[in-house]
Amino acid sequence: MSTGQFRFVASDRRVREDRRFVAGKGHFVADIDLPGTLHIALVTCPHAAARIKSIDKSAAMKMPGVHYVLDGAELASGTEVLLAGLDTPNVPRRPLAFETARYSGEWVVAIVAATRAQAEDAAEAIEIDYEPLPFVLDAEQALEKSSPLVHEKHGSNVLLDKTFVWGEVEKDFAASPCKLSLRVKWGRSSTVPIETFGVVARWDPWRDILDVWASIQMPRYAEQIAAALKIPAASVRVHNDVDVGGSYGVKRGIKHSVLVGYLARRLGAPVRLIEDRLENMRGGDAHGPERLFNIEIAFDKSGIVHSMKMRALENLGAYAGRSPFQLGKPIGAIVGPYKIKSVEYRAIAVVTNKTTQDAVRGFGQGPTNLALERAMDEVANMLGFDRLEVRRRNMIRANEFPYLIPSGTTYDSGDYETVVAKVLADTDYDALKKERDELRAEGKLAGIGIATCLEPSGGNATFEALLNPKINMSTFMDSCRINVDGNGTITATMHTTSSGQGHETLVGTVIGEVLQVDPDTVRVTRPDSLNALPSGTPVGSRMAIMLGGAAFHAAHKLKAKLTTIGAHDLGIAPERAVYEQGNVYDRDKPANKRSWPDLVGIAYRNMHRMPAGLEPGLAVSHVYPVPTGGTLPTPDGRVQMYPCFAFEFHLLLLAIDPDLGTPQILRYRVGHDCGTQINPKIVRGMTMGGIAHGIAAALYEEFAYNDEGQLIAQSFMDYLLPSSHEVPAIKIIDHETPSPHTVLGQKGSGESGYLGAPAAIASAVNDAFKPLGISINTLPLKVSKLGDLIAKARTK
Amino acid sequence: MRIELTINGATHALEVEERTTLLDCLRDHLALKGAHAGCEHGVCGACTVLVDGAAVRSCLMFAPQAEGSAITTIEGVTPAPGELSPIQDAFCEMHGMQCGYCTPAMILTAHALLAGNPQPTREEIVEAISGNICRCTGYAQIIEAIALAAERMRGANRPTELRT
Question: Which value does ipTM take for this structure?
Fold first, then answer.
C-alpha cells in the first residue's frame, strides 16, 4: 500500500493531544486532588542487605498529621505476593520488605500523613534496627557457589538458565575457517521519565470499588492489583484517562499500587503516593537491564557470518517481576538483519543486591543489538574489511522476505540494502571517512559509527511461554469500540493509558481514513477498566499495529452496517450500494442516495426502515488479535515472536577530545523504515527521542554502585540526562517497506532509535580508539572512562 | 506565614508554611497545575515559571521569596480558554512534545528567550532550553517549534517577502 492511496494516513497532520499539553492542561496523576487525600512517604533500607530486627513506630505516630505507619509484616499478612514472570515461588516480591531487605533503597516502612511534608517529617522519626547481611552486587559473582544468597529459600541466585540451540551450530562452527569471541557489557541504566511514578487510590466500601488513578504502563494492571489485594478484578476501576508523563517501558508501578490500594482500604480515605526523585531512582521502577554477553562468531574469509553462540547474563537486582523476560524478547530477532544460519543462545538471569530491574524501551533488545553489532564490527576488523561492507554482505535481501530466522520467527518485510543506499546517497561515506581522517590529522580522536537494528513490533508476548513453561499465553489483543450517536457524531474508544505516543490521534486518523471523514471530528475516549474492552497496553511497540488494527476493523464494521442500511432503504442489492464520505448511493443511479443524517436517523429512530435482523443503533466493536499470533513455542524453543520488523541504519561521526575524553557527535544520519507512517510527526519524534535515549545509554547514564552496595547515582546531579547540548542535530532518511501483516502497512516505531544508537556510538568510539590500539566493549562510555582509557593507552 | 503573591497579573493573599516551595504553592494552594515536579533538586526544569520575566525553577525557590515579583505560569501565557499563543501553536505545529510533562516549562523558557531575542540562532535556542530536560523528543522538534514561533512572531501580519 503506498502513501498515495490515503486521505489522512501518512499526511503531516497535527497531534490532537498536544493542545492540552501546551496549555498545561494535561491530566497527570499528581494533578488529581481528591478531598481528604492522605499522602505516603517511604522509609528505605540503608544497607545492601539486612535483616529487619525491629521497627519502632511510636515517635513517628505522634508526629503532626500522621495517620498510619505500615510495615512489611502487616502488608505481607494482608496481601498476596506480586506476580512474577518466572516460576520462582521462593523469590517473593512485595511492596515493603518483609523480614529481610535486599538492596539499599528498598522500601521498608510507609508513613501516611495529611500532607507529603508531614509524612517526610515522620519518616525521619522511624527507628529501625537492622542486622547487616553479606551481599553480592556482581552478576558473575552471584553465580559462584560461595556467593551470599539473595533469597536463601530459593537455594541459588539463578532464576533462569536456559539454553536454546537453533540449527546446526557445532557443524557450522566446525566448517567456518574464522572465529572470534567477544565480551560485551551493557551497563545499568534506563529511560527515567521526568514524571516519577504516581498512584492515587480510593476505596468505596458501599460499592466495593477501588478507584485507581496512576501514571501507569503495565499489562494486566487491574488484574494484578486485584490478585494482590485478594478482591475481584471487577472491584478495581483503573481510570485510563490519566496522562502519563513519559514511561518508555518503566512505569510498571505494581508495588506502589498494591501498597496504596491496601492503605486506601485499610484507612477508608483516598491515599496517594507520588514518588520523589530519590524514591524513584533507588527503589521505584527506575532501573533497566544490566547485561554481560559472551559471544562467539563463526565466519568465513569473505566476512559471511555462519553461526553465533551467545551467552547473556542478566543482573536482575533483588527481585523479579517481568524483567527476566527481557532476555526472551531478543530471541525473536536474535540474528538482527543478518542471514546467520544457526544460533546457540544461553539466557541466564541472576538476582543480586541491587535495585530491582524493570522493563525498558525495547524490552532487552537494545543490549542484544549492541552485542551483535559489536561482533559485526570485530568480524570486519579481523578480516581488514570495511565495517559497512561486512554488514551489507550479511544482510537479508529484499527478495528473501518473508524470511525465517533460526529461532522460529519469520520477518515480515524489509529492504535493508535500499535503506543503507539512501543514507549513503545523502551522506557520502568516503567523504565522511575523509572528514574523520582530517580530524585525526588535527590531533583529535575521531571515529565513524555504524550500526543497524531491527525493531520487533506488535507485542506478542510469546517469550513468556518460551521462558516459563507454566505460561501458555499465545496472544495479546487490543480493541476499539465505535459509536455513532443520534446526532451523527462519532465517538471511539481506546482502553489503556498513553505516555506520549499520540494514541488518540492514531485512533482518530485510522477511523477517519476508513469512514472518509475528517479525523478531527472523531471523539476518542478512554473508558475506565470496568467499561473497557481488552487491551494489551502500549508495550512491545505495538499500538500502531494493534490499536490501529482494532480501530480499522471496527470502522469497517460500521461502514458495512451503514452500507447495509443504505442499500435496504434504497431498495437495491447490497453489492450495488457504494459508501462514500458518509453517504451511501446506488452505483447504477448515483443521484439515488442516503446521506449520513438519513442513515443515522434510520438506525436510531426508524426501526421500520431497518433491514430485518439488524441491531438498531450504530455501535460496533472489534477485538484484534496479534497478526501471526496464536501459536505456542515448539519443544525445541522456536516460536513466532512479533509480527513486524522495522529497520534502522545509523551512521555518525564522533570526535573525542584527546585530553579531556569529551565526546562530540559531529554528524548523525539514520535511515528509518517502519512501513507506512500513520502520523509522520509522531514517528519522527519517536525516532529522535529514541536516539537521544540511546546516546544517553552509551555515553552518560549509569546507575552506578560503590563497593558497599550503595547506589551512587541517586539524583540528576550524578545520573546525567542529556540536555539539548548533548543531543546533536540528527537527520532521518525515511524509507517505506509496508508490512503485509498490518491493516495499513504500518510497523512499530517507538524503539528502534534506542536500539540502534548505543551500538552506533560504541562503533564510533572503537573506530576513534583504533589508532591507540584499544577496543572497548562496555557501556556506558562516560567522559571519565574515555579519558582514563586514552591516558592509559598513551602512557604505554 | 501570610504572603502576598502576584501571579499572572492577579494578587493572591495566602497562608503557607515557611518551607513551602513556589512550586508546591502554585500547585497545592492555587491549583495552577501547569508547573510540574520532576526532580525537585533544580536539574530537570519541569517546574520552570517566569519570575519578573526570567525562567526560574520554582522547586528551588520558597514561596515567600517570590513576594514582590511578577510570577507568570503557563496558565498566564494562554490567551483565553481554548486559544493558543503563537509559541503554544508552534509547539503544536511541529509536535514539539510527546508526553507533555516538560512542555509548559519548555514553552515558558521559550517565552523568556524570544522576549529578549526575537531572532535566535539554533545555537541560541539550544543554549536557552539546555536547562529543561525532555526525555521524549530528543529536542529536535522543540528547537524547530521555537524557531517557527520566532519566525511567525517576527513576521506577524506581514507577507513573507517583506520579512527581514
Answer: 0.97
